[in-house]
Write a structure and sequence with these properties.
4-stranded antiparallel β-sheet, elongated, mainly beta, 0% helix
Length: 119
C-alpha cells in the first residue's frame, strides 16, 4: 500500500510561519497531483492548495499570497510553506495524493496534522 508521512504541524503565533511536508512511499505508482486540505471545527473540508504533475497550482482565496505549495518529484514529496499565519488558519491539515496504480486512479490521505495559530 501507499503510505503518506506528514510532518511540520504544531503551535504558532499569529504572523508566524510553518512548513508542512508530506512524503509518499510504497509500491509503484504514478503521481497525478498532490494537495493539502484542511478542516476546522464546524466547517467543511476545503482544498488549501494543490499541485499537478505539470506544475499547475491552485490555492484557496483565503491563503493566496501567504501559502506556497511545491513538489519534489524525485522524493515524491509535497510541501506547504505557510507564512503570515492567522488564527483562522487553525485546522487539521490533510495531505492528499492522487495517483494511478495498477491502471486505476486512487486517492490516499495522510493521517492529518494539527496546526494551531494563537492570536
Amino acid at each position: 500500500q501507499v503510505q503518506l508521512v506528514e510532518s511540520g504541524g504544531g503551535l504558532v503565533q499569529a504572523g508566524g510561519s510553518l512548513t508542512l511536508s508530506c512524503a509518499a512511499s510504497g509500491s509503484i505508482f504514478t503521481i497525478n497531483a498532490m494537495a493539502w486540505y484542511r478542516q476546522a471545527p464546524g466547517k467543511q473540508r476545503e482544498l488549501v492548495a494543490g499541485i499537478a504533475t505539470g506544475g499547475r497550482t491552485n490555492y484557496a482565496d483565503s491563503v493566496k499570497g501567504r501559502f506556497t505549495i511545491s513538489r519534489d518529484g524525485a522524493k515524491n514529496t509535497v510541501n506547504l510553506q505557510m507564512n503570515s499565519l492567522k488564527p483562522e488558519d487553525t485546522a487539521v491539515y490533510y495531505c492528499n495524493l492522487d495517483i494511478t496504480r495498477r491502471g486505476l486512479r486512487r486517492d490516499y490521505w495522510g493521517q492529518g496534522t494539527q496546526v494551531t495559530v494563537s492570536s
